[in-house]
Amino acid sequence: MVKSISHVVKRPGRVFGDPDVEIPVAEDLTTTPGIPLREADVSFFSRVEPLETQNIEKGADRDWVWSVYSPEVADYMRGHDERMKPLVDSAEVSANLKPSGASRNGKDLTEDIRRAARELGFGEVGFTRFDRRYLFECKRSWAKFPHAICLAMEQDYDQTQSLPSLEAEHAHFDTYEFESKRGAKLADLIREMGYHAQIHSPRDPISVMIPMFVAAGLGQLGANGQLLSPHFGSRARLMMITTDAPVTYDKPVDYGIHAFCQKCLICVERCPARALVKDKVWWRGAEKNKVIYDRCRPVMAIYEGCGICMKVCPIQKFGMPAVMNHYVQTGEVLGKGTHELEGYSLHDKGYFGPGRLPNFERSFFDIPHGRREDWLFEQFKERIAGEDIPTDGELTEFARNVKSAIDKNGITRDT
Ligand code: SF4
Ligand code: SF4
């Protein structure tokens, strides 16, 4: 049954030079531009429970994953970290680089920068206020400039459809390496225009990024916890540049995703870990489907980064224009129930088509939790709950480990 259309969103084509596309949003998918927010709650939580980088907040499991990576994944990740290090190092000092050209007397540079970013290969480019409420606590002093340029780079289509696989991990992390170099070029261009440009590496961000991408109109949050961008859904890798260049902010857009996900729910139904939840909740001031991190993490670590929730998303596979047109024409979710969209394989468990999920023992989900030092204390509590009193040597060893964990938090990076 053909649906009534509420509005049509016009967006630039997938790559620079492509014609604009139109995305029809059905009336029954209309909610709000961006994401439903309770601004007072976002501000409150940022003050009393500031966000922290996963490498500190989830430090215990970030160390643990290295013990379960396959040799191939571990080798590739070590190589990636080495290749990224100079890029992350240069991003860290980029705020202090002086503009190299004369400023253009306050001329609005939004479209100059957008065009340059598109020419460099970024598929989605948007501008918004750098919202300090999403800063990580340990990087509070890093943010120097008021405007955020949100940049999304598409990762390879074919490699992504093989998720979960080492090949798909290449698509993921190779894109980080490529876009970091392109981001550095864009920052150089902004300095030549006479302004500062601070790079926020995709491997060492200073804040949560998705809320600012949504504010800049580059997509909406999907039930899989990822940004669904118009052309490639969550098959995009995100980075930001902050600047003091004069720019005009874009506005959040209602693509219909907030409501569409509740009709689709493919990612929720196909997640092997049952880590995605059907019902939206209010979380730190935003209404969303909240991922259960502790269920996702072991599957991600053991099955090559998993990413099944990305692979099975119709927006990722077919793009938003095709999916929304299909919904308007039929009232159905394009590809739902098909092996092509929903099927996947896990290396030791085989193939799972629509309606079939793997099972795991309860112990599979018993992994280290929380910060490194908190996990050490948890283990210590268990140790002294037994009958034995620790020896002086064990106490010294425990203190050394806690000190080392705390020191690591001070120097840690999201690499
Ligand atoms: S990465 Fe895998 S385990 Fe984690 S939420 Fe997505 S589908 Fe589920
Ligand atoms: S799979 Fe469906 S429910 Fe999940 S993010 Fe994609 S569109 Fe939303």
Provide the descriptors you would attach to this structure in a database record.
415 residues; 2 domains; two-stranded antiparallel ribbon; 17 helices; binds iron/sulfur cluster
Structure report:
This protein has a 4-stranded antiparallel beta sheet. Helices cover 41% and strands 13% of the residues. With 415 residues, it is of the alpha+beta class. It has helices at residues 39-48, 54-57, 59-64, 71-93, 110-119, 157-160, 166-192, 210-215, 257-264, 266-270, 293-302, 308-311, 314-318, 320-330, 339-342, 372-385, 392-411; strands at 5-11, 21-26, 124-129, 147-154, 197-200, 220-221, 227-228, 236-243, 281-283, 286-288, 344-346, 350-352. It folds into 2 domains: 1-370, no CATH class; 372-411, no CATH class. A hairpin with a 2-residue loop joins strand 9 (281-283) and strand 10 (286-288). The structure holds iron/sulfur cluster (2 copies).
